[in-house]
Write a structure and sequence with these properties.
This protein has about 200 residues and is of the alpha/beta class. It has one domain: Spore Coat Polysaccharide Biosynthesis Protein SpsA, Chain A (Alpha-Beta Complex). It has seven helices and seven strands. The chain has a seven-stranded mixed sheet with strand order 3-2-1-4-6-5-7, with helices on both faces. A hairpin with a 5-residue loop joins strand 5 and strand 6. The radius of gyration is 16 Å and the shape is globular. It starts with a strand and ends with a helix.
Length: about 200
């Protein structure tokens, strides 16, 4: 069965995306960073081993947006908190295997995704930890029906997000792949800081 990689995306509009980052570097530069980071990520992750599906927000604007590659399939994220939207993205992809990622992970490469799908060969779920207690990837070998209790009582945007998600996956066998840093604050951007400074002079 074909593997699916779902990338969660927001339209890169100033004040709509990466607002925590924008409070430090400016909303326009934060949106610029996200747009270019996502374009690079999507180019790098295309692979014959899986299909990429974009889960876009806002629903109507995202489905018709010209920002994202037109050849990639899209679904609307829909309403609800992050767990509601990720659960919807997982279960809309058929039975699985399927992985869901964010787009704000500068260190993410194709081999990380390949490792996550390999992990689903012997495990029922996979998580990619982030240093702040969250995670950059979640995957399920069988996404439909979704595990009972998936994402219930998860404290999103906190240091408890991965631990809470892990509890919500019980009793599934869960594998872990490499720890990668997502970008929430300016301190998460050491490798791209030069590019951000360059935009202020343009």
């Amino acid at each position: 069965m074909k593997r699916r990689l779902v990338v969660m995306l927001k339209e890169p509009r100033a004040g709509r995306v990466k607002t925590r980052l924008g409070r430090t570097i400016g909303m326009t530069r934060a949106a610029w960073w996200f747009r270019h980071q996502t374009a690079r990520l999507l180019r790098d992750l295309e692979d014959q081993r899986w299909d990429i599906v974009l889960a876009v927000s806002p629903d109507v604007e995202g489905m018709s947006s010209r920002v994202w590659p037109a050849h990639l399939a899209r679904i609307p994220q829909g309403r609800g908190n992050l767990g509601d939207r990720m659960k919807r993205a997982l279960t809309l992809q058929g039975t699985g295997p399927v992985c869901v990622i964010g787009a704000d992970i500068p260190g993410l490469r194709r081999h990380h995704i390949a490792a996550a799908f390999r992990a689903l060969g012997s495990s029922e779920a996979v998580l990619g930890p982030a240093p702040d207690g969250g995670y950059w990837l979640i995957g399920l070998k069988r996404a439909r029906p979704a595990p009972r209790g998936l994402f219930e009582a998860v404290r999103w945007s906190s240091s408890h997000a991965m631990a809470d998600t892990l509890r919500s996956l019980a009793p599934l066998r869960v594998a872990f792949v490499d720890t990668l840093r997502d970008v929430d604050e300016a301190d998460d951007l050491p490798m791209t800081r030069a590019c951000l400074h360059a935009t202020s002079d343009a």
